[in-house]
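Chain and conformation:
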Amino acid sequence: MAEVGASQRLSLRRGAGCHPRSSIDKTPVWRVAGRVSLRLGYPPRGSTHGEFVGNVFRNKAYRRLWFGQSISQVGDYLFMTTVALWIGTVLLRDKPYAPAVTGAYLVIAAAVMVCLAPVAGVFVDRLDKVRVALTADIVRAVASGGFAFLPWLSHSLPMRLTLTMCGVGVAVQAIASTFFNPARVIIVSDVVPVEKRGQAASFAQASSAIAMIAGPMLASLIFVAAGPAVGFIFNAVSFACSFVAIRIASIPVAADSPVARERKKQFGKELLEPLRLIGRDRVLRTVLGAGVIVMLGASTINSLNVYFVLENLHADPIWFGVISASLGAGLLVGSIGTGFLGERVGYERLLASGLLVGGLACLIYARLGSAVAAAMLIFLYGLAGGMVETVMSPLVLGAVRREYLGRVLSVFTPALRLSSVISLGAAGWLVSLMPVGYRFQVLGISFGRIDTVFVMAAVMFLLSSLYAFTALQRPASGP
């Protein structure tokens, strides 16, 4: 027994059972350094990018993909903001129909995504994901680069032709993005270990929130300082950076299963396959429903918050900026924290808990009369919303086999976009039915026109959290 114990202690001192011998030098110094690197999350030398435990940013392939995605997302927001500024302040300055033209471009982008997403999902599942993403980046870069010539040509072109070319450019970018987005998600799932997908989703969500803030600000600065052409060029460069990041990342090649190869011959069945999968799987149904609820609530608050500050809080308009910043901070904190909590608590619990906390925060927020308290509650609401949006990705990736991912994601994306658009229209319509200052009582509780809509959103959150708590406790059926 003594010999066995000594042998075990000797093997442990040599690093047996901790990591491959080939990844560490035989000298004591490098052996210690290797152990420290594993504790910090660095992959051992000679291993693939996904074969380690630690912070997902230690994964070189993911780090490059994340950088490219972040830059291109900033470019997306910069592009749309630059288009809006150019049309509103230059092309159609002082024209009453300028907002309608800008809104039409947003409708074009949304319509392209909703109509094309199912077909794009089929082709993404059929084709090589890396090539799809690279091709989409090339198309987006060329389209954005072509936009840079429009400000110079607009002086000699008819106004209708210039506006039509803008619409075509927006549509082309939306088409390319419809193919790029599901391909990128699958690529990330290929390079990130299963247990680290929550972290990857949290960083992606956080970078998206930052891009949503930085993109419009950068667009405004560039537009004022250098004009719209420079903003369009920056957008083209952002897609070029995304192309390079994907190209140099070490992405493993995943072979299709025999079932996937057989189903590629049946295009019609492939279009309907994701609906069947979502209908059968409790996790997918719950995640899709939660995502729709979050988009409904978030769009409602975003569109009506300025009126809530003025009519319910009776606060100075400057508080609208403070409350909006608090909401963004909550989304950012919730996104980052969820990736690390999910590994310990479980993403199913975080989804249900996030819906519950978001519903309670929205309900209390709707009844507030203090701007300071509203800024605190909206932070909690944003934190819960960031949790729910972040856990969606690892839950979907864990419930769907790789050969179905493109099509399933192409159902989720238009559904979430449609729910946002419907929420904006429905909330505005409901509020417009009641005059400013209108109050009514239910069970002795007074309600106004804005807080009534917020309470309705809160009830939807709470009902969805109850469904999530019950549905996700039972095992979900696989596809």
Confidence is low (pLDDT under 50) at residues 1-53. The CA atoms of residues 108 and 180 lie 18 Å apart. The longest strand covers residues 439-442.
